[in-house]
Amino acid sequence: MAHATDLPTRTLGSAANGTELTVSALGLGCMGMSAFYGTRDEAESIATIGAALDAGVTFLDTADMYGPFTNEQLVGRAIASRRDEVVLATKFGNEFLPDGGRRVNGRPEYVRTACDASLQRLGVDVIDLYYQHRVDTTVPVEETWGAMSELVSAGKVRRLGISEAAPETVRRAHAVHPVTAVQTEWSLWTRDVEENGVLATARELGIGFVPYSPLGRGFLSGAIRSVDDLAPDDFRRSNPRFQGENFRRNLALVDEVRALAQAKGVTAGQVALAWLLAQGPDVVPIPGTKRRSYLAENVAAVHVELTADDLARLGDVLPVGVTAGDRYPDMSTVHR
């Protein structure tokens, strides 16, 4: 595994906006340690976070809805003795209701209570990067961001971000308080942000870009050859891209990535991460894993060099829109 000194850093945000946040070039998405991806092993997850810090991965990503709530608690336990080594990101906006339902909530009073609850679960005094996880279309984003800005003034939060927001929403939020990072799905098999204005808007405004699911929910690793490779309770079984003919078509695309990877003596997942890292110095992918073995593989991707020919070939094989199936069973809560 790479040592801390081997892992380069990148800057989210910009000096002009006063939003600079220095993080490792690759972050660690912690969601799967507590939710959505089948079995959980808390001891291995905590060991994985420790190994990430040892390797120089300083940027950890969680959210209150993961678990729900348990992922923040797990991350808090894992970093308790190493808080000063971590740039900690969490999110609010998905409220769980007493009847077991869930709604998107961007009301100012909810912003405040959600932040206080996250601070308590994480066991920290301040959150380094606080994202609005989903946009509440019933509340003007200016009201939500007014409350978020107050959290910065109060010293509870250092920087602000927004996830799955449309370009105009990003602009409106940024006008209230400078946005440090936009987090949206982006990978070789989800390239929408390159065409829908989200990436261009972030760059115009000096906002960093944090791609989640940079390995296509694990598909781009090449390790998933059948839906039967997924645990019975894995949410990907209901994901349109993992079903029927879509699965078969997408597997053929991944095989092209594997072929290029094999020619370079690396893994398909490392090629997928290296491709994202090559898209610009303002891009910081956050691959998720709950095992130290995959962490080591992901971290090594920062040293994979893709030539101009490699990048062109990948662009030809996996152009924008080629992947079969929607990103989610219900697309109504993204890009608002």
Structure write-up:
There is one protein chain. The protein starts with 8 loop residues before the first strand and ends in a 19-residue tail after the last helix. With about 325 residues, the chain is of the alpha/beta class. It has 10 helices and 11 strands. A 7-stranded parallel beta sheet has the order 3-4-5-8-9-10-11. A two-stranded antiparallel sheet has the order 1-2. α3 (about 110-120) crosses α4 (about 140-155), α4 crosses α5 and α5 (about 165-175) runs parallel beside α6 (about 200-205).
Keywords:
336 residues, alpha/beta, seven-stranded parallel beta sheet, two-stranded antiparallel sheet, 10 helices, disordered N terminus
Task: Please outline what is shown here.
35% of the residues lie in helices and 14% in strands. It is α/β, with parallel strands linked by helices and 336 residues long. The termini are far apart.
What is the number of strand segments? Answer: 11
The secondary-structure class comes to: alpha/beta
Per DSSP, the total helix count is 10
Strand order of the largest sheet: 3-4-5-8-9-10-11
Helical content stands at 25-40%
Q: What is the distance, rounded to the nearest whole angstrom, between the alpha carbons of the first and last residues?
A: 39 Å
Unreliable spans are: 1-5
**For the residues shown, what is the average pLDDT?**
92
How much strand content do the residues show? 5-15%
Order of helices and strands: EEEHEHEEEHEHEHEHEHHHH
Largest sheet: 7 strands, parallel
Shape, principal axes of CA atoms: globular
Radius of gyration: 19 Å
